[in-house]
Amino acid sequence: VPNMTLMAPKDENELQHMIYTAVQTGHPTAVRYPRGNGIGGGAATDAPAIHRPALQGPGNLTDLIQRAAELRAAQRMEEALETITEAAKLHPDDPRAAFGLAQISFESWRPAAALFAHARTLVPGNLDIVRNHALALAAEGGGTEAKRLLEDALKAAPGWADGHRILAVQRITAGDDAEFDSSYAVAVKAE
Across the chain, what does the average pLDDT equal? Predict the structure, then answer.
């Protein structure tokens, strides 16, 4: 059959996307799947339907970031991570893709400090990225480096209440009882 597409999913999740693609395409499509029960793969009936064409090419950066955000909001973190990783590979110097990859990695309990460091080079001075970088450093055992990063950022932005609050927590966690009060006092005063 001319222009026929043959697809073979590895699990229920891929089957869902391939059926969606088959319906959306304007040419003959066949989906081959094994007999019997599937082996699993995340075809959750209670999850919101977030379909993507199974034959999608590299894709538009904005579309990939939007899809990753939708998947993240639906708590489908593995799919969100795959999607944002694709965006970051295709566009390594895009700050949205870099920050998205760092954030979704962090929220998926994966190492993210180096990813946040890369995002900071793309958007210097962004305090949200600095905050999340410090949190990732602390989570990965780099508490001293996290405190140093926050202290440096607070020199440039002394009124940054969130930075003072996180620095106070870092100091308390490290057992630095004498110094945490100063950051905490500034954070409370700024609010």
Answer: 83
The C-alpha angle 137, 139, 142, rounded to 5 degrees, equals 40
Sign for the CA dihedral angle at 58, 61, 65, 67 comes to negative
Task: Give the distance from CA 141 to its chain's centroid.
Answer: 20
Report which of 166, 180, 105, 173 is spatially closest to residue 131, judged by C-alpha positions.
166
Q: Cβ neighbours of residue 20 under 8 Å, at least 6 residues apart?
A: 51, 52, 53, 54
Burial of 26 (0-12, 13-18, 19+ CB in 10 A): exposed
DSSP 124: T
Q: Write out pLDDT tens, residues 43-92.
A: 544 444 555 555 555 568 888 999 999 999 988 999 999 999 999 999 99
pLDDT the model gives residue 172: 84
pTM for the model: 0.67
- Helix ranges (H only) for the chain are 12-24, 61-73, 77-90, 95-107, 113-122, 127-139, 143-156, 161-173, 177-190
Cα separation, 100 vs 133, in Å, equals 13
